[in-house]
Amino acid sequence: MSLSQRHLDILEMAKQSGFLSTEELSKTFKVTAQTIRRDINELCDKGLLRRYHGGAGLASSVENVDYPTRQVLNHEAKIRIAHMVAEYIPDNASLFINIGTTTEEVAKALRGHRKLRIITNNLNVAASLCDNEDFEVIVAGGVVRRDRGVIGESTIDFVRQFKVDYGIIGISGVDGDGTLLDFDYREVRVAQAIIENARQVILVTDHTKFSCNPMVRLGHISEIDVLFTDRQPPESIMAELHKAKVELHVSDPVEEESDD
Fold it and tell me: What is the pLDDT of residues 99-150, one digit of tens each?
């Protein structure tokens, strides 16, 4: 469920103008209205756009895509990102891993490591790693969401008891000015505690997050040390990465079929 270049361009246009008409998009991309309607339907099905009469606009900034959809959305890209992170993380390391479908793939990719100590507020991550007798998996307490993420004041207090080598966090959106964004302010506060208590902060995100604009501010991309993604970010975000001297790792692209 990765996105074509035209889909990415449509999302970027929607981000700039808010609403796009089918006719306007058809002329811009020199394809039929039927092709554009198919594009819009696919993007809406993925929760990235919302249908309106005569076109589409940005999806909600206050409500995330449901968890089962997020699990399969760009799944192959998340696996590639996870493998890069697993190569980067050494054995005998301590790490935080927070809520997110990409961080869950990272956890799976780390199962072959030795002597890791993992603190997580993600029950899916804990379930992936706890069978390895060589690992110590520590789960933060708090309120459990339907996606098995753990949040709340007690979660934040628990995270603050540790200082680890690596903090691995996911995100729901990265704005053009480098602002890191998410949907749940309670989840954001846990992620902020992770950033404050990790010697090196690793952000893992697929390219769709560069076109998503949730309303809750987590921080700025300058607060992370390394970004792992599957496609080069837009120019505005690249400029922020360069300014903050953030290390960037982009996975090898996968050849996609044309949807014209």
Answer: 989 999 999 999 999 999 999 999 999 999 999 999 999 999 999 988 898 9
Q: What is the pTM of this model?
A: 0.74
Give one word for 212, left, alpha or beta, with left for phi > 0 and alpha for psi -120 to 50.
beta
Q: Which amino acid, 202? A: I
Could you give the CA distance from residue 98 to residue 93 in angstroms, rounded to a whole number? 16
Sequence-separated (6 or more) residues with CB below 8 Å from residue 185: 216
Q: How confident is the model at residue 212 (pLDDT cuts 50, 70, 90)?
A: confident
The band of 45, judged by pLDDT with boundaries at 50, 70 and 90, is confident
Both tokens of 137, joined, read 């998996």
